[in-house]
Amino acid sequence: MGFLRYFGLILCLLLMTSGCSLLEVKLESGIEPLPQEQLGMRVFTREYATTFYAGVEQSADVILQSDDIMVKSNALMWKIYAEQTLGQTIFQVSPVAAMVDTWAFTAQMADFFENGKGEDLFGERTELAAKTSQQLLADYERRMQGLMSQSDFATNKAFIKQYVAANPLFDITFPRVSAFNDWLKYRNIGEFEAVKTFGSVPEVMSDMSDRMAMLAGQTPKILGWKAELFALHSNINSAEVQQTLKDISETSARFQALMAQSPQMMSELAVDLRHELTPLLAQLDASAERNLAQLSVERQALEKMVERERMALEQMVDRERQAVAKEADALVQRTVAQVFEEITNVLKSLILYIVLFLVVVFFAPLGLGVWLGKRIGMKQANKQADRA
């Protein structure tokens, strides 16, 4: 399993270089041993990991007996992400940061199953997960209570309660950030004041040994659970997945052993492969060149076709523009003729009305006066005749 050892080493180095900004402290401070209190925090916190893993796995295995696929999936995800997250909180550079962050995560998980989004995650068996989480939290607090004074324990417990209320977990994957920076602000402590040393060289080596041992123990289990989760949703037998992984590991180990025992044979194999593949690569290059040349010809033909279409479109637009201009001229001429015709009719009507107006204004009073004069003369003549 050379690959797993290499993967474990890389993952261990990543874990060592992750976490808080405390890595900015110079490594030369590691010459000073850890205070006895912090050393106790590291020991008891890492001993707690065994209890945590056992509690989660036992409860999750009971929940896995359900017939509901989603409940089984959530149970596997609980084991995977709970143990991965605890590994991140425990294996921090600073024992104080590990103590605070592990306490905060355990309390967050308990609140998640009892009062948060995980209340119905496992159906009727969610109560088991909530009870287990509360027991794990109580066990951790019991361990920490023996490491610090009553006042410090009460202050830290008050901070954890406040932090959990402000930062609840919303998903079974347990996405979260470290609680150490918030704890420093709550306690009004600076980073360099809280962490003055990473420990002596033996303590640092012991820390690395613990990380490697924990990684070696947890990685196969987590990989197996992830394979079961994949098989659960892909109609694949988990036993077959496990056997396939085992076969792949054995084949890889045999291949590595073969490479180590027969370097000359591997060199000859590489030479043979190069000789065999050279003609194929040459054919691929020639085929690629032909395809590129054909593509260039087709591109030129496409450009010519586009040019012809563009010219045809311009000619069509020009013809349409000329036709529209002719129609507009004809329409203007018809409009002008019609306007002049209407103006002529209006002038004729206006002249008629003027003539009638003059007749009414000038000739009507004259005729009326003549008529009245005749009437008056006739009346006077009749009166003279009557007198005579």
Write the layout of secondary structure elements.
Blueprint: H1 2-16, H2 36-63, H3 69-90, H4 95-114, H5 126-145, H6 150-166, H7 180-187, H8 191-194, H9 201-232, H10 238-261, H11 263-387
Helix pairs in contact: 1-9, 2-3, 2-4, 2-5, 3-4, 3-9, 4-5, 4-6
Provide a short characterization of the protein structure.
This protein has 11 helices and no strands.
Counted up, domains total: 2
Sheet with the most strands, sense and barrel status: none
Number of strands: 0
Q: Name the helix and strand elements from N-terminus to C-terminus, one letter apiece.
A: HHHHHHHHHHH
Mean of residue pLDDT values: 77
Based on Cα principal axes, name the global outline: elongated
Radius of gyration, taken over Cα atoms and rounded to an integer in Å: 51 Å
| Beta strand % | under 5%
What structural class do the secondary elements suggest?
A: mainly alpha
Helix content: over 70%
Unreliable runs, pLDDT <50, ≥5 residues?
1-30
Number of helices: 11
Could you give the distance between the termini? Answer: 168 Å
